[in-house]
Structure formats: structure tokens, C-alpha cells
Amino acid sequence: MPATRLFADSNYSGTSTDLEEGDHNLVDLNDKVSSLTVTPGYQVTVYTDKDCTGASRTFTGDTSYVGDALNDKISSVRVAKVLYFDGVDPLVNVDS
Ligand SMILES: [Ca+2]
Predict the structure, then answer these.
(1) Mean pLDDT, the chain, as a whole number?
(2) Which of 7, 27, 49, 68 could anchor a disulfide with 54, C-beta 3.0 to 4.6 Å?
(3) C-alpha of residue 6 to centroid of ligand 1, in Å
(4) Is 3 in a helix, a strand, or coil?
(5) Is 96 inside any structural domain?
């Protein structure tokens, strides 16, 4: 299972591309992404410009529509592992 799958159309349809952890400039789907899936344990930050610049938003779960502000405007994506799950505040469990 890829860390994230990006789709050209809303509701997980249209052309798609799979990405793993790391920073990615979009090629085939540049300025086309409308929905995306996020595998549990990852978060996906999308950017309106290449090299992870411009307006951004972080998604932590499957998103059937990225919203009017980002639809067909995403040019780069940062995929990262999340460090905690299920709403657990990481600061609670810090070893001291
Ligand atoms: Ca689109």
C-alpha cells in the first residue's frame, strides 16, 4: 500500500499516482489533484507551488475533495510519517 494516492478527480477517481515518504514535485498530476488517500500512520502536506512552497494544507486521512482553495492547484507534496495516533498527545508520553 502506498503512503498516499493522489487522484485527478474528486471521490478518488480519474488518473492517479502513488507516492511514498518524502518530498515530491508533481508531474502528470501538476495542478490537477482533486482527492487523495492517506494510509494510516502517514500525513500528507500539499503545496500550491513546487519544492513544497506556497499555500499548504496537511491531510491525515482520506479526502474525497481537497477543497476549492486547493482543487487543481497542487504542485508539490510532502509525505511524512506521523509520530502518534488516535489523538494521543505526544507530550504526555515524553520520557524525562
Ligand atoms: Ca482535478
Answers:
(1) 91
(2) 49
(3) 10
(4) coil
(5) no
